[in-house]
Amino acid sequence: MTKKRIYIFDTTLRDGEQSPGVSLNIQDKLEIARELVKMRVDIIEVGFPIASVGDFEAVKAVAQNIKGAVIAGLARANEKDIDRAWEAVQYSDAPRIHTFIATSDIHLQYKLKMNREQVLARAVEAVAYAKKFTSDIEFSAEDASRSDTAFLYKVYEAVIAAGAKTINVSDTVGYTTPREFGNLIRGIRENVPNIDQAVISVHCHNDLGMGVANSLAALENGAQQLECTMNGLGERAGNAALEELVMAILTRQDYYNAYTNINTQQIYRTSRIVSALTGVNVQPNKAIVGANAFAHESGIHQHGVLNNSSTYEIMKPETIGLQTNKLVLGKHSGRHAFEDHLKELGHNLSADEINVLFTKFKALADKKKVVFDRDIEALLDEKVAVAPEIYELIYYHISSGNQTIATGTVRLKYGEKIIEAACTGDGPVDACFKAIEQALGLKVELEDYFLKAVTSGEDALGEVTVKINKNGKSYIGRGLSTDIIEASAKAFVNAINKVVAEVGEDTSELSEVTSTP
Fold first, then answer.
1. Which of 64, 81, 82, 279 could form a disulfide bond with 91, CB atoms 3.0-4.6 angstroms apart?
2. Are 50 and 84 in contact (CB under 8 A)?
3. What does the radius of gyration of the chain's CA atoms come to, in whole angstroms?
4. Distance (Å, rounded) from C-alpha 464 to C-alpha 310?
């Protein structure tokens, strides 16, 4: 039997960005889009162009610069939204307009204040209008899983007749169950006369933890496109996770008799980049990409894996691009050996990028006894999370103890100027952060702080992620060091550099300053 091709529609940059606290700038979206293309995602939904100038510019930038995937922009079912979406995606070699309207009675009554006939007419008008710009139109019925099925069939038939090439069935609030959703997809396939003229897509949320299960049930019943996000990001409890869907289809080809075009060896790398840029850490027990996904602690499990990995591993770590945590290079290693090993790890970087990374590697090798693949991956993650280096941390000093008040002194470089300040705080990290704020004359709110070890051992590389808020907007910063205070300070400065780059804080008055608590 011929295997069925399943198309992967990634909405990390649109629905994933709607996760509370996540805010991606244009460069972040471009970086993630590049990784999605490397992974061979079929469609990338970049954003909702009408939502803001920033969203519009991000969709436009991706459409202009990213090749190798369909680039989609979301639009409500009205001309203004569709115009704005087309203005953004038109630069793509393969642009798609994705328009939507709710179809459930609860949404019609309480949100749209429309009746069914009005919704049907609006849906058809939107698709017909979008067709003036492109033939690649996707129509989504929002809250489809709670809609009257007879009305839903009618809407899908009408929008396909109007020109929709893809019809999307949304489980917008994660309400349905696998059997229900599978039956709904089968019903659409059997009761929409012109369904053979369109691809059936599904978009499942994870409110009841069944986003992936519902998507796979839809696949079994005729869905050909799965909408998903890296790491399962998304509103509320998130969306169906791309990595789980793809690996389920690959691992159980015997059952699903389907395949995707995804390069699975890019999954782990892409997951880490998305985590770094969004500031949302992957839980250790997360399927496929979690730190414990291929870890075995039980003695019985370890014994079985050593004898034959298939006893407790249904997937090989290498399949998702996860390297074993082995010793690779040291402080005496040369640039060529380092470059060759980067290629072994699947990274093709420019000469300038390798030079910068090699300098960081040598600095790390001087501090650590051993350098692991995971350490190098962390340095690569830091590369993609950088902000314009307006301020550079060049010195810090902490005085702290259980019987003393923590005091932090920092020195930062701003152009040719040196800015220095000292502050007390509730612990060494807080003192350091307050000193940085005082040195810059900039007050921000610390929303979140997260520390993790990249590898094991006393000299493990520490990775700190901070989330700060300025003027109601969140910014993510990351820092790496074998010293957690240094990693924390780097992360804080990294986040502040993003604030300054975007908000444009006035730095013209800054000069050489030395402050005391």
1. 64
2. yes
3. 25
4. 35
For 339, counting Cβ atoms within 10 Å of its Cβ (0-12 exposed, 13-18 middle, 19+ buried), the class is middle
Q: How far apart are CA 42 and CA 460, in angstroms?
A: 38
Closest CA to 386 of 501, 498, 230, 271: 498
Residue 58 has pLDDT above 60, yes or no: yes
pLDDT tens per residue across span 404-461: 899 999 999 998 899 999 999 999 999 999 999 999 998 999 999 989 877 766 667 8
Q: Is the dihedral of CA 183, 186, 188, 191 positive or negative?
A: negative
State which of 257-271, 315-329, 379-393, 467-481 shows the largest mean pLDDT. Answer: 257-271
pLDDT tens by residue, 78-128? 999 999 999 999 999 999 999 999 999 999 999 999 999 999 999 999 999
CB 98 within 8 A of CB 138: yes
Q: What is the DSSP string of 192-216?
A: -TTGGGSEEEEEEB-TTS-HHHHHH
Contacts 24+ apart (CB under 8 A), 244-247: 244/212, 244/287, 244/288, 245/8, 245/212, 245/215, 245/216, 246/8, 247/288, 247/315, 247/319, 247/320
Residue 511: how many CB atoms within 10 A of its CB?
9
In three-state secondary structure terms, 441 is: coil
Over the range 381-398, which residues count as b (16 or more CB within 10 Å of their CB) and which as e? bbbbbebeebbebeebeb
Euclidean distance between CA atoms 475 and 494, whole angstroms: 9
What whole-number distance in Å separates Cα of residue 311 and Cα of residue 161? 51
Q: Quote the tokens at residue 333.
A: 């290693």
User: What is the pTM (predicted TM-score) of this model?
Assistant: 0.81
Tell me the average pLDDT across 300-316: 60
Comparing 142 with 511, which gets the higher pLDDT?
Answer: 142
Candidates 200, 220, 210, 148; CA nearest to 174 is: 210
